[in-house]
């Protein structure tokens, strides 16, 4: 029995590890693909060289990010079968078709047009090249839509029947399976998160170069665009996140109660615990700093509304409280920091010192990676909060895994950890190196030799002609 | 009756995806396998450039094969992947190294030799894992109560090692033939020499695997040699002989495209041969495609889209290949 449990935990750690690593890359490439589309459109419209420069600057970075997203994504599509075969067999008839649609409508679209986007400018001309860029951006959005439909079904399953073998099978309407209760909220929240993450990364890079050279037109343009995005999108994201939370309270109350750290029911309105240390054994939060009634005000929009507590749910149905309690606070804290940065940039813009305020640039630089942290923290909140189920309320994680012995899973987990830190660690290092180079002004044409922009000829042969 | 038809249709679609993967990523992986034999500098750069714009699309067919199996035959997906667990993990890790090397070798000239090695190592591991997995499936998987019931090294056998090396050789031959078509100068003459070596090796491996397969199980024997089916199945080795003959003649004549096309034809014949041995099983001799099939509603929902989307995919994939047609050139694309 103990061995049995170990294999499940190892498989969960492996999935969590590989999906967390993976998720960083699509979160960035969803945003970057759209940003590149905007840059190319602006360049085609205005003919201004700064847009072409920025397009090529970020295209090189996109190529590396996208490549890592692809190879870490293939792992995910096979891991359902290798480590969660019982889940795959039971849920395959319902979520399998959605994932097959993701492959057919998104992955092929991205991959098919990526080659032209990266290497084809001089082969196909501007119009078709822009079409390729748009198709890649569209592909990333379609991909997010399908995979979040799958995830939402696992969170708030609907539209299925259960047959005599215990398999989930499609009910009369596929619409009901795709558009489950949490899907619209999750989709909007996640896609905005990708945009915000990208805006902060672009802003951080822009700030870095502004700190070194305030006159660099590429750095000014990218910083300005990124700060507009942060200022506009961060408040929207906080609003959408709140709506997503209310939706979760309705459909997965135990998850929200774990996030809030509410063990006891609150019949006269719940407090908001800002910080504290949840102790699920003792069923209380130690050293809690709390604001009375604020929890109900946020979750019910009424300070005196009653909220249940985790004690109202069987102990075996609780998610791990400590993890989601903290991951949620990290996400929300960063969200408000992003809002603060956006507002600060508006103030700087109004004062006319957007490009000259070093402290703003330093803050933007520090906030550069914050989107990635927030995205992972949010993902942990929703996924760990789904525990102890794979299909919420219907299929337990402990009953979902493959008939594999613990040593096999332990060996693969170690292999994944070593390879990911090594290969993706190198990739992240290369990304930072690309970002550390300033965008150079002076080119109005797309690269006559796109090879270096996307890494197709040796760097030496293209050096110096790039910008 | 209708559901039976759709099950066969989905078996054909997934078979097509797997075949598309095998030949398209086959030449990518083959180039990876052959990479150490290419000269550092222009030869390697040309080889890399010849597949850089298309490798991602090629690899996507693997995801469609896996995803399609998950969706249309969830039971088979849930049996085959745990049964070949170490192979699948090795393949995925191999594909990671192979995939990142495309970008990283340009980003870091000081460590290019290392990423070239990762490119080769990843390609070899991925090719071997796929080939061994094929042998493991052919030799049979222990299934009890609709789940894998074997250990984690059941896949290892002399036969599965043979299929592993056979696929490795086949991929290398495809890669060499692709380079013979797409490159020029020193790289091309090197590639042509490699095809001369690898094509006969691949055919020898093909014969060895074909000769060993009927002895794995009487059922395979019966499928190939029972009268009157033998009249039909005998066409496969006959066509193999014809394709091999055309391949060698075209090589001697210095053709650029025909050797590659003949190798594709040989892969197709191998694939048909596998179909003859396996169909209608998806896990040989324990689970048929009908046992493993998802319900009709799942199959029809996917088919409604696949009918239109797969042809569109083929059109724009074809366009992407056409954009990068012709010789790679020695200085990237002009």
Give short descriptive properties of this protein:
heterodimer; A: 467 residues; mainly alpha; 2 domains; two-stranded antiparallel sheet; two-stranded antiparallel ribbon; 71% helix; 6% strand; B: 334 residues; 4 strands; globular; oxidoreductase (chain B); transmembrane helix (chain B); membrane (chain B); transmembrane (chain B)
Short description:
Chain A is mainly alpha-helical. Chain A has helices spanning 2-46, 49-83, 85-119, 121-155, 174-178, 183-212, 217-251, 253-260, 294-300, 321-351, 358-367, 370-384, 406-436, 450-453, 459-462; strands at 160-162, 168-170, 272-279, 284-291, 389-391, 395-396.
Q: What does it look like?
A:
Chain A: Belongs to the cytochrome ubiquinol oxidase subunit 1 family. Chain A: Residues 441-467 are annotated as: Disordered. Chain A: It holds the Pfam family Cyt_bd_oxida_I. Chain A: Keywords: Cell membrane, Electron transport, Heme, Iron, Membrane, Metal-binding, Transmembrane, Transmembrane helix, Transport. Chain A: One of its GO terms (molecular function) is oxidoreductase activity, acting on diphenols and related substances as donors, oxygen as acceptor. The complex is a heterodimer of chains A (467) and B (334). In chain A, the strands form three sheets. A two-stranded antiparallel ribbon of chain A has the order 1-2. Chain A has a two-stranded antiparallel sheet with strand order 3-4. Chain A is built from 15 helices and six strands. Helices cover 71% and strands 6% of the residues of chain A. Chain A is mostly helical and 467 residues long. Chain A has two domains: 1-180 and 409-467, no CATH class; 184-404, no CATH class. Chain A is globular, with a radius of gyration of 24 Å. In chain B, the strands form two sheets. In chain B, strands 1-2 form a two-stranded antiparallel sheet. A two-stranded antiparallel ribbon of chain B has the order 3-4. Chain B has one domain. Chain B contains 14 helices and four strands. Chain B has helices at 2-34, 42-51, 55-72, 74-83, 85-107, 112-139, 158-182, 185-216, 218-225, 229-233, 235-252, 258-278, 289-292, 296-323; strands at residues 143-144, 147-148, 281-283, 287-288. In chain B, helix 1 (2-34) runs antiparallel to helix 6, helix 1 (2-34) packs across helix 7 and helix 8 crosses helix 9 (218-225). Classes of the chains: A mainly alpha (467), B mainly alpha (334).
């Amino acid at each position: 029995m103990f061995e049995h449990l170990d294999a499940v935990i190892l498989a969960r750690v492996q999935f969590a590890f590989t999906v967390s690593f993976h998720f960083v890359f699509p979160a960035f490439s969803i945003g970057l693909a759209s940003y590149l589309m905007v840059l190319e459109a602006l360049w085609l419209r205005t003919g201004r060289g700064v847009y072409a420069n920025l397009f090529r600057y970020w295209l090189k970075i996109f190529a590396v990010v996208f490549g890592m997203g692809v190879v870490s994504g293939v792992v995910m599509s096979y891991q359902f079968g290798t480590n969660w075969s019982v889940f795959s067999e039971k849920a395959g008839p319902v979520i399998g078709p959605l994932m097959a649609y993701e492959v057919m409508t998104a992955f092929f679209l991205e991959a098919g047009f990526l080659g032209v986007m990266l290497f084809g400018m001089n082969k196909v001309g501007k119009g078709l090249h822009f079409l390729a860029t748009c198709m890649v951006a569209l592909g990333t959005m379609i991909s997010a839509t399908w995979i979040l439909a799958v995830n939402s079904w696992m969170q708030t399953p609907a539209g299925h029947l259960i047959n005599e073998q215990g398999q989930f099978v499609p009910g009369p309407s596929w619409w009901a399976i795709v558009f489950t209760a949490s899907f619209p909220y999750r989709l909007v929240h996640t896609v905005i998160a990708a945009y915000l993450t990208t805006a902060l990364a672009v802003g951080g890079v822009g700030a870095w170069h502004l700190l070194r050279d305030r006159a660099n037109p590429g750095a000014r343009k990218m910083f300005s665009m990124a700060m507009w995005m942060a200022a506009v999108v961060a408040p929207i994201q906080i609003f959408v996140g709140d709506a997503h939370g209310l939706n979760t309270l309705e459909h997965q109350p135990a998850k929200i109660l774990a996030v809030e750290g509410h063990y006891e029911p609150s019949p006269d309105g719940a407090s908001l615990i800002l910080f504290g240390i949840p102790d699920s054994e003792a069923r209380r939060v130690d050293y809690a700093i709390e604001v009375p009634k604020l929890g109900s005000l946020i979750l019910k929009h009424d300070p005196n509304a009653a909220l249940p507590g985790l004690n109202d749910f069987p102990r075996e149905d609780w998610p791990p409280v400590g993890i989601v309690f903290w991951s949620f606070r990290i996400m929300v804290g960063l969200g408000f920091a992003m809002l603060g940065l956006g507002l600060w940039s508006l103030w700087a813009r109004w004062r006319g010192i957007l490009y000259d305020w070093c402290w703003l640039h330093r803050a933007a630089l520090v906030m550069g990676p914050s989107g990635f942290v927030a995205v992972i923290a949010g993902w942990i909140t929703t996924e760990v909060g789904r525990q102890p189920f794979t299909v919420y309320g219907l299929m337990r994680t402990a009953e979902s895994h493959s008939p594999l012995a613990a040593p096999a899973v332990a060996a693969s987990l170690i292999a994944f950890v070593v390879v990911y830190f090594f290969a993706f660690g190198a990739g992240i290092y290369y990304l930072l190196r690309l970002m550390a180079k300033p965008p150079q002004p002076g080119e109005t044409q797309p690269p006559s030799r796109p090879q270096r922009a996307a890494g197709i000829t040796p760097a030496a042969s293209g050096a110096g002609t790039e910008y | 009756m209708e559901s039976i038809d759709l099950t066969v249709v989905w078996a054909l679609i997934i078979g097509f995806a797997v075949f598309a993967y095998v030949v398209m990523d086959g030449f990518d992986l083959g180039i990876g396998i052959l990479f150490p034999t290419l000269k550092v500098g222009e030869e390697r750069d040309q080889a890399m450039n010849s597949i850089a714009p298309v490798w991602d699309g090629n690899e996507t067919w693997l995801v469609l094969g896996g995803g399609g199996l998950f969706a249309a035959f969830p039971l088979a997906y849930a049996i085959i992947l745990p049964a070949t667990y170490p192979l699948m993990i090795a393949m995925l890790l191999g594909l990671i190294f192979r995939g990142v090397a495309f970008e990283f070798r340009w980003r870091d000239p000081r460590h290019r030799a290392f990423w070239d090695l990762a490119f080769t190592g990843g390609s070899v591991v991925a090719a071997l894992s796929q080939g061994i997995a094929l042998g493991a499936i052919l030799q049979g998987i222990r299934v009890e109560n609709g789940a894998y019931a074997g250990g984690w090294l059941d896949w290892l056998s002399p036969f599965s090692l043979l299929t592993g090396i056979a696929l490795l050789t086949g991929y290398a031959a495809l890669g060499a033939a692709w380079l013979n078509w797409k490159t020029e100068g020193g790289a091309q003459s090197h590639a042509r020499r490699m095809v001369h070596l690898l094509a006969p090796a691949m055919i020898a491996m093909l014969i060895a695997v074909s000769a060993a397969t009927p002895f794995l199980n009487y059922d395979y024997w019966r499928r190939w040699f029972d009268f009157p089916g033998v009249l039909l199945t005998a066409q496969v080795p006959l066509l193999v002989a014809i394709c091999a003959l055309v391949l060698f003649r075209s090589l001697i004549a210095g053709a650029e495209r025909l050797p590659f096309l003949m190798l594709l034809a040989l892969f197709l014949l191998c694939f048909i041969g596998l179909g003859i041995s396996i169909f209608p099983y998806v896990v040989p001799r324990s689970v048929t495609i009908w046992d493993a099939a998802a319900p009709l509603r799942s199959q029809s929902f996917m088919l409604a889209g696949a009918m239109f989307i797969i042809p569109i995919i083929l059109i724009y994939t074809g366009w992407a290949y056409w954009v990068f047609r012709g010789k790679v050139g020695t200085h990237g694309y002009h």
